[in-house]
Amino acid sequence: MALIVQKYGGSSVADADRIKAVRDRIKRTVDAGNQVVVVVSAMGKTTDGLVALAESVSTTHAQTFDEIAAKEREIDLLLATGEQVTIALLSMALQAVGQPAIAMNGTQVRVVTEPIHTRARILYVEPVQIKAALALGKVVVIAGFQGVAIDEKTGLPTNEVTTLGRGGSDTSAVAIAAAIEADICEIYTDVPGILTTDPRIVPKAQMLAEITCDEMLELASLGAKVLHPRSVEIARNFGVQMCVRSSWLDDAGTVITSPRIGTGSLETLEVNRFVEAGSIDYDQAKIALLQVPDRPGIASQLFKSLAEKGINVDLIIQAVQETEGVNDIAFTVPKDQLHLAEVVTRSLEIGASSIAVDTNVAKISIIGVGMIGRPGVAAQMFSALAASNINIQMISTSEIKISCVINASDGETAIAAIQKTFEVPVQLHQRNIGLTENSEKSPSVRGVALDRNRARIAVQKVPDRPGMAAKIFEQLSEQNISLDMIVQSQSDRDVNEIAFTVAIADMTKAETALNQVATTLGYGEVSCDSGISKVSIVGSGMIHQSGIAARMFSALADTGINIEMIATSEIKVSCVVRDHQAEEALKLIHQEFNLSGDSIIEVPSALKK
Ligand code: ASP
Ligand code: MG
To answer: Beta-carbon neighbour count of residue 356 at 10 Å?
Structure first.
């Protein structure tokens, strides 16, 4: 007998017939001897309809903060009705076939959240009511996406209805699974599982039998369409086993494994630390190629040659430069491979104006799934280093990790600064320790993601001194702008260039914010480019293999696609390319890693734009 949480999304409960199909599946699960807790979304596109209704009766012009807050409260009250319709209907449907069931909304269960409307985070879920109903042999049907606000003064739940943000019912389901210590949380949706890439671009994208939570989070732009990232975050922190399956099929779907032992506190489910660990790696040496020609094939030639010699390149960054037509490329390698790496690099004729080698460097990183969607974390890290007067030489980021290359002699100070700021231990990085055995068997590339919704912003001539990155990213964090793929390259002059990507919708806001302080901070022009896309490969197996990045670069180079920016983390390599070449880039990379299957997986056209 297992304790199973099943979550059914809007399309799976879109009408009475679909609700009956869901009922049958639940009944079968119970008849097989399991205890079942069901979490549901609103029927079909109900929530969209309610949002549209709200807009049609309320003013749309900008209001005061108080007016906005007042409206958001009512929006939650309105949107929460959608899920309540589904729970009542599904529970009645179960009762009608002789299966005892009880419907409960977020307030009745006590899914307790922050006192914030329209985007509350879950603090805890009261397991008592759910367990009592299960003990009576009932199926418990719970409304997803909603909760009840905590009273910050008394610490007790109020009667104020909150919602978690669009798509939040996945998060409800996993939070409930964590609270009742369910054996598995099954997410039923209209896709058969997680695919290797977007099937609308690559029809022969394949279904993954398995993916880790970390990979899933790094694939955010691919996976977010199927699963709310916050749900994966909880699964990872609490060791909840999840799977994604189609409610139309009996296929096994994709299992999302959570190799970590849960570290979170059940009292603050979603508001755990943003950053969960830090690490420092002194076994790094840096090679910087300055002013390499900006044309297809350069990165490929360089990293292919390094891979051929078995050199394990760690961090790679490539940034644009203010001088037209040239790039800076910098990368790090383990110290014992530096000599070989340097010989290889110097032997290539790729037209760099100079090649600089530095063995006196260390890489300090912070990692944590809570960084996703919290714009201030990068700024906080840079500020912490700046406050200790540490100069940052290179920056590379991914969804769940930020790494900075600094002077090795600043290592101890940096550790202290990070420990104090994030209240996490900073461990000495040891190669290949702390990885699960599984990652060795993991494919080096699990999936390929394309994010077209990105724009690049480059800040030129940033004085090379402590505090600059901090100041720049503080400006953005104040505007609540989330950014990713920050790349800072180092040049031979006393200025750096910092480039990063933001959502297209935030581009102008970011540009304005940065231009406002350009003279005060002493940097040069801020340039924006919305004609770019980001392609990424993700796979935990790449830690154990050299040459994965090189293969990605070559796949692009062979077809003449220019790479404009590169950033890497342990399990991810991202490249910025021109938007009009992005789909082709995705196809080429998917093919390079042999990710296609033989069959075409049917994905309902209803699935996400
Ligand atoms: N009904 C909510 C929405 O459409 C929550 C969900 O379906 O996950 O956003
Ligand atoms: Mg959903």
So the answer is: 14
